[in-house]
Specification:
The complex is a heterodimer of chains A (about 70) and B (about 200). By secondary structure, chain A is mostly beta strands. Helices cover about 10% and strands about 35% of the residues of chain A. Chain A has one domain. In chain A, the strands form two sheets. A two-stranded antiparallel sheet of chain A has the order 1-2. In chain A, strands 3-4 form a two-stranded antiparallel sheet. The radius of gyration of chain A is 23 Å and the shape is rod-shaped. Chain B has about 200 residues and is an all-beta fold. Chain B has three domains: about 45 residues, no CATH class; about 70 residues, no CATH class; about 60 residues, no CATH class. In chain B, the strands form five sheets. A three-stranded antiparallel sheet of chain B has the order 9-11-10, with no helix packed on it. The chains are: A mainly beta (about 70), B mainly beta (about 200). Strand 4 of chain A pairs antiparallel with strand 4 of chain B, so a sheet runs across the interface.
Chain lengths: ~70, ~200
């Protein structure tokens, strides 16, 4: 058994003798590499009540990578 | 087709640097897995300002790197440190808080104007917030120059200033008068013995 990376997907390459037990060789994933970071920011404070007050904001960064895995039949 | 869509969030202790030029830099070296999020907290102190958009804050991804050397360019946005070159990001509109917009094409050309309110073309690595401030002020000054004489009509200017960033309406004023003096209202008003209501 050995390992390799194909299109970012970690796939196990398995000898035929083990295939029936561990992995079906008529089924395999593939997909494009996508690099997509996104950001949004929201106020935790709705309305300022006094000058000098602290205003807290939350910034959220999301890795929006989508792996589309397609099977051939 | 299988679409893995598990999402989860982590709270990240981050390093922030106040650059002293109106920007704060956050640096994170953590690995961000697909559909993982990082949350940063920004604490600001609000002070009075006359500047347009004085309470408008933008955050943007200024640099990012993939661990995969073959996937190096964000598919729908371009990180940089320029506040106003991103499509969309109009606060409190459809392009606010959007992370599904496609802000640049494959050549990196911006697909809409900065502050466009269209969600579909919002550049999703850039987002605004605004601190809502409700601050009305008034000043009154004697318009007629002296010297004065008894019986003279004196004009006053009463000005109301919206010093916040909310649209105001139905403003009513009361003008407190120093005793019984004759009043000539230049605008529609309602007078009583010691005050005028506008």
């Amino acid at each position: 058994m050995r390992e390799k990376y194909i299109h970012g997907a970690h796939q196990m390459i398995i000898p035929q003798v083990l295939t029936k037990v561990v992995k079906e060789d008529d089924h395999d994933p593939a997909g494009p590499k996508v690099f997509d970071l996104a950001l949004f920011m929201v106020n935790d404070t709705d309305i300022l009540e006094d000058y000098g007050d602290n205003v807290r904001q939350t910034i959220t960064v999301t890795n929006q990578v989508i792996y589309q895995v397609m099977d051939l039949m | 087709m299988y679409v893995p869509a598990a999402t989860h969030s982590v709270l990240q202790t981050i390093q922030d640097v106040n650059n002293g030029n109106g920007t704060v830099t956050y640096v994170s070296t953590a690995l961000i897995q697909p559909w993982q999020t990082l949350q940063y907290t920004l604490n600001l102190t609000a002070v009075p300002t006359k500047a347009e958009d004085g309470w408008l804050v933008y955050a943007e991804i200024s640099d990012d790197n993939s661990t995969d050397p073959l996937a190096t360019v964000d598919i729908d946005s371009r990180p940089d440190a320029i506040r106003n070159n991103d499509a969309g990001g109009a606060v409190n509109t459809a392009s606010d808080n959007v992370v599904t917009g496609v802000g640049v094409d494959k050549l990196g050309v911006v697909r809409a104007a900065f502050k466009s309110n269209v969600a579909a073309t919002d550049e999703d690595d850039h987002d605004p917030t605004v601190i809502r401030v409700f601050d009305m002020a008034l000043y009154k000054k004697l318009k007629t120059a002296g010297p004065y004489r008894y019986g003279q009509v004196l004009d006053f200017d009463v000005c109301v200033v919206n010093q916040g960033n909310q649209v105001m309406t139905d403003v009513r004023l009361i003008d407190y008068l120093p005793g019984r003096i004759p009043i000539c209202c230049s605008k529609q008003c309602c007078r009583s013995m010691d005050r005028i209501r506008y």
